Amino acid sequence: MGAADVIYYTFHIQELRSIVQWKIWHHPVHERDPENESVSLKVCFDFLDQTSRSFSAVIQELHPELLVPIALFYLILRGLDTIEDDMTIPIEKKDLLLRDFHTINEKEGWSFNGSGPDEKDRELLVQFHYVTEEYRKIKPVYREIINDITRKMGAGMADYCNKAAEGKAGVETVQEYDEYCYYVAGLVGSGLTQLFVESGLANAALKDRPELQISMGLFLQKTNIIRDIKEDWDDKRRFWPREIWSKYVDHFEDLFKPANQEAALNCSSEMVLNSLNHADECLFYLAGLKEQSVFNFAAIPQAMAIATLALVFRNPDIFKKNVKMTKGLACQTMLDSTQNLSKVCEVFRKFVRQIHKKNTPKDPNFLKISIACGKVEQFIESIFPSQNPQALVRQEAPETEEQKKEREEAKWDIIYMLMIVMGTLFILSVVMIGIAWFVGARFDLAITELKDGNWRSLGKDHAQKMAAKYDRGEL
Q: Of 164, 173, 317, 395, which one has the greatest count of Cβ atoms within 10 A?
C-alpha cells in the first residue's frame, strides 16, 4: 500500500474496514486440496493464477465436482482467446487454429510455440499439453459441453478475425455488437449453465432459458467494453458499434477530444443503457443456483459489473484512462454478493440508484435510462417486496439489546481502525523527521523561513541566498 492509498483510506475508513473484513472473515465454502493433485493439475492451477487472479480465486472455491472442469474450461478458452488476440500469427494459420481448437483438447502432447514473444499468455500455449492431459480425465459429459462451446466460440472468433483482416475492423451495428459479445462471453454463460445443471448444483429449468444464460455473459462483456474503451483504442481496436457512436460524433477518435466531452458522455450513456438492459435477467438467473459456491462464482462478477457500470456512467475519465473501482469498494461488493440473492439484489439496487442519480435531463437517453433503472428496481421489488408484514413488524418493533450491541460494536470498529491509521501515520512521521534530523536537516532554518512568510519553494537562487545568509564560516 503506497502513500496515496494510506491518505485515501484515512478519509474512506469504511472501505478500509471492508478490506480487513474480507481478508479476515471471508471463508471459502470449499477449499482446493493441492496435496492430492497430480503434477499436471498443479501446473494448470498455476496458469490459472497467472492468467486471471480474480477468476482464479472464485474458481478455486467451487464445489469439488466442478472445480477441475471449470478451471480447465477457463484455461481452454483463455488459450483460444490468446490466439485470437495475437496479431503476429498470419490470418490463414490463425483461422485454422481457431476453427480446429476444439479438436486439440483430445490430442495428447499438443502445444503451440508460434505466439509472438510479447503475448502475455504465450507460455500457457507452450505448455498446453498439461491442460489437455487433465481434460481427458474429466467426465465425458463435461468434456462434451466444453468441446461444443470451444467449437462455436472458435468459429465465431475466426469470422471476426477474417473481417478484421479484410479491413472491416470494428463493429458496425448493434446486432453485430450483440453477436460478437455472444461469441466471446454469451457462449461461456451457456457452457457454465450446462455444467451447473449436469452436476446437479443448479435448477434444471435454467437449461430451457437460453436468454438468461446469454445475458449473464453479455452483461459482463459489454460492461468491460465500456470501461476499456481507451485501452482498446490505444491497441487500435474498436468495439463500440458505429450505429451508436455515429449519432454523437463523425469519427470514432472524436470521442477522445476534450471539445466533444458532452457528446462522448451521451454516447457512453447509450452504451451503458445497452448493457443495463441485461441486469434484471442476470438476477433472474442467479435465483436458479442451488449451491452456495456456485452462487458465489456467478454472483461476484455480476455484482462487480453493476458496480463498474455505475462507476463509468457519465464519467469523462473513461476516455482518458482505464477506470477501475477501489479495492475497498471491490471488497465490500464481494462481501455483499457472497451471501444470498436478497443481498445481491440490494447491491444491484444501490448501484442502479447511483446511475439514476447521475442521470441528467440534458442526456438524450435520460428517459430510457430512467426506465431501465426502474425496470431493475421493479424486478427486485417483485421478488423481495420492501413493504411486507414481516418488514413492517420489524420496522415498528423497538431495537433489541442485541441490535444495540451490534450497532455499538460496529461504531467502535470504525473508531479503532481510525486510531490505528492515525497512530501509524504519526509514528511514520516521527521516524521520518528523526532520520532527517539525524542526517543533518536544519529545521531551525525552515522554521525561520516560515516565520518570514516564505511558504513556498522559491527556486535554486533563493536556496543559494539562504546558504550564504546562514553560512557561519566554520569551513
A: 164
Q: Is 151 a catalytic residue?
A: no
Beta carbons of 158 and 95 less than 8 angstroms apart: yes
**What is the maximum alpha-carbon separation in the chain?**
91
The residues near 321 (Cβ < 8 Å, ≥ 6 apart) are: 230
CA proximity to 175, closest of 242, 97, 102, 94: 242
Catalytic residue among 32, 78, 227, 349: 227
With beta carbons less than 8 A apart as the criterion, state whether 229 and 318 touch: yes
Q: Compute CA distances 270 → 367, 383, 474, whole Å.
A: 11, 28, 73
Q: Contact 349/377 with Cβ under 8 angstroms?
A: yes
Question: How far is it, in rounded angstroms, from Cα 237 to Cα 240?
Answer: 9
End-to-end CA distance of the chain: 44
Instruction: Give CA–CA dist 95/158, Å, rounded.
Output: 5
Backbone dihedral angles phi then psi of residue 391, each to the nearest 5 degrees: -65, -40
Question: What are the grid coordinates assigned to 436, written together?
Answer: 532527517
pTM exceeds 0.85 for this model: no
Q: What is the pLDDT of residues 31-62, one digit of tens each?
A: 888 888 999 999 999 999 988 767 888 899 99
SS (H, E, C) 401-422: HHHHHHHHHHHHHHHHHHHHHH
CA distance 201 to 63: 9
Task: Answer yes or no: 227 catalytic.
Answer: yes
Q: How do residues 336-386 score in pLDDT, each as one tens digit?
A: 888 899 999 999 999 999 999 999 999 999 999 999 999 999 999 998 887
Q: Which of 297, 319, 348, 351 is catalytic?
A: 297
List Cβ neighbours of 126 (8 Å cut-off, separation of 6 or more): 111, 112, 113, 115
Residue type, 467: A
Residue pointed to by grid coordinates 503506497: 2
**Candidate list 9, 180, 196, 348, residue with the active-site label:** 180
Distance, in Å, from the CA atom of 163 to the CA atom of 32, rounded to the nearest integer, reads: 42
For residues 292 and 29, is the Cβ–Cβ distance under 8 A? yes
